[in-house]
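Sequence in, structure out. Go.
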Amino acid sequence: MIGTLYEKVFDAHVVREIAENQFQLAVDVHLVNEVSSPQAFEELLRRGLPVAHPERTFASADHSISTGGDVTLFDDAMCEAQVDMLGKNALDNRLTYFDPMQGLHGILHVVAPENGLTQPGMVIACGDSHTSTHGAFGAIAFGIGTSQVRDVLASQTLIVDKLRVRRIIVEGTLAPGVFAKDVALHVIHWLGAKGGLGFAYEFGGDAVSAMSMEERMTLCNMAVEGGARCGYVNPDAITLDYLRGRAFAPKGAEWDEAATRWLSWASSPDAMWDDEVIFRADDIAPIVTWGTSPDQSVPVGAPLPDPGVAGGDAEDLRDAMIFMGGEPGRPVVGTPIDLAFIGSCTNGRLSDLEAVANFLRRTGGCVKEGVRALIVPGSREVREAVIAQNLDQLFAERGFELRDAGCSLCCGMNADRLVGRQVCASSSNRNFRGRQGSPEGRTYLMSPVMVAAAAIEGKIIDARALENLA
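Output:
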């Protein structure tokens, strides 16, 4: 097949063209959470419509679920009602439900790949912005709104515009102490939070090819923060190695056929991309956001920009800087923190927590007095793997609080929230005002290891300095 992966997968799923450049696409996998689905199920019930393909629809409670250790305890009646309703809707409609009462739950963008649901060449939809995560496997994955959740439940199809494709190449090898999260923030820093509007991002190059599947998920997860509707990496041997043996992955002879088919979705050498941007891996340093948008960031140690020379963005930058308490020319390094959060669908996977554990072993650091440090696995499976490696003991000894699986402090829809003007070093994906539960709370995005370093020092620092890497 000739063309980009996006074109191949998109064209193979077209049911019909609705209007110029607007198409009805067949959806292979629909992921459903407790926040964006209740109204959709209610509307289906009102119209007397069944879920069109329950065997392709999978549910997990992630945004509102308690991470305190007892999944039946909620501090908010709305959260409890949402989780209860998801379980009822899943049962009534014969959906596969990653039931928290059975310890199967987690963030959908962690649980689905763990189970082998996410496969190359698929179209995946979910009522959550960070559905772009699944592009790491060479799938086209769309975050959708509640009305579209309703439509997919009823028809297993989705109406979307066909996007242009921007190839983003990262050449070379990342330096020690630089992670996939830094690559994602670097791309957003240079292309902007709206730079990807109208595009799908195809990530490639030496640095991306060398990434593990979990690192690729981090990269594609953040594509939406750069304005792209979706992001993806072409499938390769690393993709196959990750999927082999997963619960929903093909087995036996079906695996051989699937593997050949999956690799054929990759963009062909003579594909035509609508745009191309090339970055050098050795230009990428650990990145920290300083403002209220993921593109308001600097390499750690660099001074904050002067809004006065920012042209048309001057007012937004000035407002963000005042809100965060920053000053032009002053580095973000040294900013005191109140909380450290390691988790989310961006950085709550096992390899993220292993990287933090290894950093703690190398540096011998403990959480600074006065700082609360949360480690929240992206799924119960991740939490159990952490415990199996005795990392829970290490985290506890160093002052970190290992919690149960869920979105936790990433979205502030559960009991984990900032209070007042608290400052959080966070491995999550958004630093919007109010994102972590307090309208006045301040969020600095960075990699999990950078968050751990901030927890140890009680302030934002360059994690590499603790290992003499900087």
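Check: The CA atoms of residues 303 and 375 lie 29 Å apart. The longest helix spans residues 77-92.
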